[in-house]
Amino acid sequence: MSESEHGLFSALDLLSSSVILLDANSTILYMNSAAENLLAISCKAVSGSRFDRVVECPGALQEALDNAFRSDWSFTGQSIKLQRSDGVVLHLNCTVNPADAMGARLLVEFWPIDQQLRATREERLLEQQLASRELIRNLAHEIKNPLGGIRGAAQLLEHELNNPGLREYTQVIIKEADRLQDLMKRLLSPHRPMQPGPVNIHEILERVRSLLSAEFPQTLTVQRDYDTSLPELIGDREQLIQAVLNIARNAAQAIKGQPGNVPASGEITLRTRVARQVTLAKKRYRLALQLQVIDNGPGIPEDIRERMFYPLVSGRQGGSGLGLTLAQSFIQQHQGTIDCESRPGWTCFTIRMPLITE
Q1: Is the alpha carbon torsion for 8, 13, 19, 22 positive or negative?
Q2: Model-level pTM?
Q3: Are 17 and 34 in contact (CB under 8 A)?
């Protein structure tokens, strides 16, 4: 493409959507700035390359491009997955329109919808959490009262038994009743009112780090990657410690339990950054805290990834399935969100909470 033709197409850089112009051979003639940012590659580097060599096209989009070339048809696609050359999968809406200008045959336009999908998912999770929490809360109240009677009856029975060997069975009843009482308290604990105040997130993370190091001294290394310029945030210190600790402890237990684990082979990284112009719970914030808990464990089983924040769902044998539920509840009370990405050998929980600055 000549400099003059490139200059005419440069007006497309004013658009916020990503625009790609293709010739009759599906060769890229021009990409605007938004498309360069979206695909993480420069127009100069891919000009003259076939579009399907630059990105991995899904079948529906490739068929739409072929039809557009053959019949001058337009196409509109929703929620299309496009894989970049670096392996990142993009979720996009797309339109394909015939064109006839300086060798261009098709104009392909993309709009990223990752933020829209994330907002929809957060809204759905919040609704499910509220419904599940209310159900569990009512169930916990119903279970809690009979447990006290069971424990009291077992204690009275123990005093009446003359055979000490039989007291072993009453102790089982008492201990199991106590265990269930503790579970009921944990199910009801998110309803404790918040006690907000100025908190330093790095003091909270250092507390979590010291607890993890004491609990898993042989199998775990906890790394710091802090942005020390972060301002204080307003929050409940104890709730935030418990939320981060629940996530990190889950990771540490998964690392410890994986086959072939050797001392100090597990690693958890606590990372903080500033996120700008973030939407949380349908509200836009200029600045937000982005806190990541990253581990090199076995990853979260695929069959529970969509349900892992639900009460009583656990991928670990003997797990209560409450740690992530409580963590999400505490973070939601801080107007924040938790996201998770996972694959074997790498799992990242990302917490975002608003930073209120003067």
Answers
A1: positive
A2: 0.59
A3: yes
